[in-house]
Specification:
single chain, mainly alpha, Multidrug-efflux Transporter Regulator, Chain: A, Domain 2, 0% strand
Length: 100
């Protein structure tokens, strides 16, 4: 893959993602199977990944590597982190509405 910036509108294939992230096909497939990213369908040759997918997969892999988690564990951690962020946003909105 070239050094071109990938926007969320541009997509790359599974092979390009593997090259870009330095991960094997089995690792990416395990993330998809765990529900980390939704690429639709079982035909890996048709899977397309966006910049958001790439960032999410890289985060999951860092969690696996740094905390010695399995794919399911890293997916769970990312889901919990997203829920915490959403709750913080809701709390912030609630606090702001009470101040007005």
């Amino acid at each position: 893959m070239s050094n071109n910036l990938i926007t969320d509108k541009s997509v790359i294939s599974l092979n390009e993602l593997c090259q870009s992230c330095g991960l094997g096909t089995k690792t990416i497939i395990s993330y998809v199977e765990e529900g980390l990213v939704d690429v639709g369908g079982d035909d890996t040759s048709r899977w397309q990944f966006t910049q958001t997918h790439i960032v999410t997969i890289q985060k999951a892999h860092r969690l696996e590597r740094d905390l010695r988690l399995n794919p399911a564990g890293s997916v769970l951690v990312l889901e919990l982190m997203a829920q915490i962020d959403e709750l913080k946003n809701q709390l912030r909105r609630y606090q702001q509405s009470g101040e007005e």
